Amino acid sequence: MVDRIRRTKILRRDLLAWYDVEARDLPWRRTDDPYAVLVSEFMLQQTRVETVLSYYARFLDRFPTIQDLAAAPIDDVLKAWEGLGYYRRAHNLHRAARIVKRNHGGRIPATVEELRLLPGVGPYTAAAIASIAFGLNEPVLDGNVVRALARLYRIEGDPARAATRKELRRTAELLLPRSEASRFNQALMDLGARICLPRSPRCHECPVAGQCDAHRAGQEVLYPQKPARRAVPHVDVVGGIVWDGEPLAPGARHLIAKRKVDDMLGGLWEFPGGRVEEGETCEEALVRELREELAIDVEVVAPFVQIDHAYTHFRITLHTYHCRHVGGEPRAIDCADWTWIRPDELDAYAFPKADRKILNALLEATA
What we know:
By secondary structure, the protein is α+β, with helices and mostly antiparallel strands. The protein has helices at residues 2-22, 34-44, 49-62, 66-71, 74-81, 88-103, 112-115, 123-134, 143-152, 162-175, 181-194, 213-216, 282-294, 353-366; strands at 234-243, 254-258, 269-270, 273-275, 297-310, 315-327, 337-341. The strands form two sheets. The protein has a four-stranded mixed sheet, with helices on both faces.
């Protein structure tokens, strides 16, 4: 027990000393505004710091207070979020802002229990906001911290399993210095993000390598213990640039559709279409999908661009075609909305990343 206490003290001391010198200069670390911390934590869910940096300041310029965010239409929020991905976070952040304004007088709640009641706030996000914004003694368990703790203490088992997660949390709680939760949590995050890397840990640069069980055993890459990855499914998808006249003609308009809020990428606009079913050609699938989604008939005129895109759990190849509208007044059957638009008006709408590539190709073709 004495050795464990001594080891914990040394680990805390060495990690915090390293952090004082090597801490990343991140904009959300330069503020004590809980709203700014909330925004950063939503953006950082499943997204690299480097990616978030290009969005964070612009988002806060557009919505400088939680009242501004709560008052904004969701379309404006999605446009500001465009390209950051995982758009459910934007919907949840917007709903959370409205709840905070309505139920908490515009003040971010300061306890984990209250934070967990906000949409999109799970155990990690609640603990991060509570410790960083309010200085509460709450341990955090993001992917970087889990990896570092699993190696430091050679914690057995898949971190996705409840028993392993419980052991990780118990370890994090014992390690946390009660008066410096914010600083220590961020030090652990930085250690995992910059030194304790998934495939090639930089143990020669690690300030706590001497306290790391996995390093002493030469087993760093064996932790955390995760099951083998399954093969990633691939799906062929079609999308139509449906024109109200001759494709690409000067002044011609084409159709875009808005995804339902509860669908994947909900609330974003797209070039309408859908999945290619077994036994269908891409052209047949597109004709069927446009009839089912918008109640229109089209003539497929010519292929346009093909986009390969990866999501978290599957990959797609998006085949797009120029189409001519030949019948039926558009109706929002399997979408939230639709509109006719000229290519030069597209940039006012929020699109998913794959559709944005089509949009850019279309703007180039019509320039």
